[in-house]
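Action item from last week, closing it out:
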Amino acid sequence: MDATFSYMAIVSDRPRVLADFYAKHFDMWELGHSDDGDVSITDGHVNVSILKQRPGVEGAMGRPGLSHFGLAVQDIREVEGNLEEFGYDAEITAEAGDLHHGEYRVVGPSGLPISLSTRNFSVTEKPRSYPRIRHMALSFPKVSDDELDFLVNVFGIREVTLSKARRQQGRSSRFAGDGHINLALLAHGREFHAGMKPLEYKSEQARALDGKVGLNHFGFLVRDKAATMESLPAELRDVQHRSSTNVDMAEFRVYDPDFNAIDLAERGFEVDIDRWETADGVISTAERFAATPERAPKPA
């Protein structure tokens, strides 16, 4: 199975405002829009569909904002076969199959929906430098390995080097990659251990926003995070904040006009086993942690 994270849905009362924001500040462009007000944009790899909030479109978890992600697959029959082989009682149902949705949907063990497309969500891959989406994150009341195992067994997603190391340390967070994007599976509320500095929130609003269960945030790899943050409207600059100095991926958290959370990183994300995409190119785990060997994953 060679699935890729290629879709993300956001539910908003003002899709055009969000689409214009991402075009201006993150160089995304429109794939198309619907008469219902849905707008789909892309960074050249991911279809980010901003769905107009209306009856029947409330978003995953029953709330607007970041809703759910999707996987591009080559053969839906292979997905069906893997579900049966690994004993998952998960039904594949139909989605609209238009520009703004996948053709199919399956629900993972956590209850979060995953859209599926055999047409790459209508995105034609286009060479892209920066900024580009390289991270998505799910937040759960308590992380178990069920969701990660589901992605690995059914879709061939890989648990990355950093995740395996943090697992050995007794940490509950998990990270997986498809070769392009890093997916984090995090416990609701951050886990901090001895020597770790907590997130530096500028407001209680920002703290509350980071506590959303479900699709919690996503992230861009950027060439110059300071310039990106400075370009944002003043009211959004007031709530942006730094990640913990000991967090392995992402350096700053910013927000869009609907206060959906966005991570920014120059030092990169581990998008596959021992493969980090950074602002300076692709490097190994050892290279990533050369400057901070105390944080480097230790051999098993």
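Closing note: Helices lie at 15-26, 76-85, 146-155, 161-168, 204-209, 225-231, 234-237, 285-288.
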